[in-house]
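Following up on my earlier thread - several people asked me to post the actual chain instead of describing it. Fair enough. Here it is, all 573 residues.
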Amino acid sequence: MRIGLLTEGGYPYVSGDARLWCDRLVHGLAQHEFDVYALSRSEHQEDEGWIPLPPNVRRVRTAPLWMAEDDEVVLGRRARRRFTEHFGELAAVLCGVPEGASGAVRSLSEGASASEADRFANALYGLAELARDEGGLAGALRSEAAVSTLERACRAPGAHRAAREARVPDLLAVAAHLERALRPLSLDWYEDDGLGAVDLCHAASGGTAVLPGLLARHFTGVPLMVTEYGVRLRTHYLTTPDAPPAVRSLLAAFQGRLAAEAYGRAEVVTAGNTHTRRWQERCGAHREKLRTVYPGMDARPFAEVGESPDCADPDALVWVGRVEPAKDLVSLLHAFAEVRKRQPKTRLRIVGAPAGPEGAAYLGHCRTLAAQLFPDEAAGPHTAGDNPVSFEEIGGPDLPAAAHAYASGAVTVLSSVVEGFPVGLAEAMLCGRATVSTDVGAVVEVIGGTGLVVPPRNPRALAEACVALLRDPERRARLGAAARARALELFTVEQNIEAFHGIYLEIVSRAPVRRVVLDGSGEPLPFSVPAEAHVAVRWTTASPRLAARGGPGWAAGRPVRATTPVPAPEGAR
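Reply from S.P.:
Thanks for posting it. Predicted structure:
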């Protein structure tokens, strides 16, 4: 089959989100064809280029989200009126304005009442149809009219309190975000030779990446599948704590409405863990559509460590990950101070690079704290001291890969206060390491009883769990073996690819055929699509004349013609 893979800030670029699992998915499903539609987040990301693509990637189309391309479209009077109506209705829904109170277009016939979900959908697809008719809406979404329309919705009777309190800077910030998020409306990806030609759209994340899939479904009927390893609404709450209340409220309303629309239109919605799945249900996803597909990791780099669990330093604790405040290394350092009081020979290896400028500042703070908590103790006046805490990065001569980091310690520690799917924890499990983790995100689901879990921001509990494992080698070995068996069963690339392959076949088998085969006189040809139309094989016969409207690309061959059966010989009857 032919899959339209929709990404934002990731695959096929060298850096970005969801790059690795998308690459593994495309390589693992070599029997299928992929068309990649990618939205880039920065000029630097585009300058870095793409990763090598396998032969089954037929096409790559990209569009930037980091800059606004001028489409030079000038809307006429009627088009401006349509834009004001639809954008006004979209803004009214985000502000909580009752239908009709803002003067926006009514979603249903007079006298009927539409739900907020219907109003949002009608406004969104109304803007999409306007963009298709006019050739784009980039200029209109950046115009003063868009800001004025948003302001009228915020001031309309019935608007939420946070929206009514929005000031000019808040309105400009929200309008800029909506313009960026709605840029896919102006793309030319939705024709029959674009996303209309694929058998299935697979959005690799929520948010803006889903929008092309929604529009392809709206215009050409292509079924949509959504995969999330983190819900955008939750990310919004976690990453904008200092934003003004009006900005937080309006953008959260947009993310929530877009997520609900995607969940409602998608055939299947997959979550990377139960924690994400609960958030999806909270945002409106129906339980019968939800599937849990754990991230797939390559177990081969960790195989040697997992098969030789006794090679670790029995007195070493290891932390591996990106250095940033959410990892709460400060609590880990205070916990290690308690561990040293009970186990004086213990060492702590913190392995990881800082995540951006904030991570670099946090790493400097942690180094200073470690020097204060553990001053170098020299054996004599002419010898150098040795700090029990080391800060290292993967890629050096001592730790060329992540597996070597896990191999260097007896216990792997995770001290985060915020986590989605803890990839580092699963890697430690593949290495057969006993783990001590904080109870955040999907940690308990991943561990499944094969490690110790403590409350977050509790250095004393973290220290007690570490000491318990350091003093009991047999318990460490039992937990490590159980963790490795669990990781090999649930978190490998093979199980991830097999799960998506089965979902692809399930969706396509239920999707209606979207091509009409015509006979010589131009009339629809009855029974023209054989039962084998949804079998993943290639048809080699010449194509009949088709009425363009999407459909399985590999099922566009000439209908199978019945043949006269050959009677069997007398002796064979």
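The longest strand covers residues 33-40. That should answer part of your original question.
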